[in-house]
Amino acid sequence: MECIRLYSSHFEFIFPYRPDIEGLNDIVVRRTGDAIQGFSKGYQLTQRESEIILLIAIHGFSNQEISDYCNISEKTVKNHISNIMGKMGIRSIRKLLSLLFNHVLNTCE
Q: Are 14 and 91 in contact, with CB atoms under 8 Å apart?
């Protein structure tokens, strides 16, 4: 399957390529990247915090997988997640993902 690749900071987002709606592919890639950047800025997240959110949301990484990918300890990952939740005023990853996806959907309308 052909894919569109979006590179943002340290991430690669992959979307299915649809030649029949080529203009839409460009819009989806651009707007999703913009929405995610806006989300991070809105909560004043650091680049590393944003990276961790995306590794959870896009790739479904566990704390250990994030640790391996970022070359940091699992305790540091947990500290980043705690800081993220504190900044956002939430207590669960489920709520974080809900807020992120709602933000992306609302931004892309």
A: no
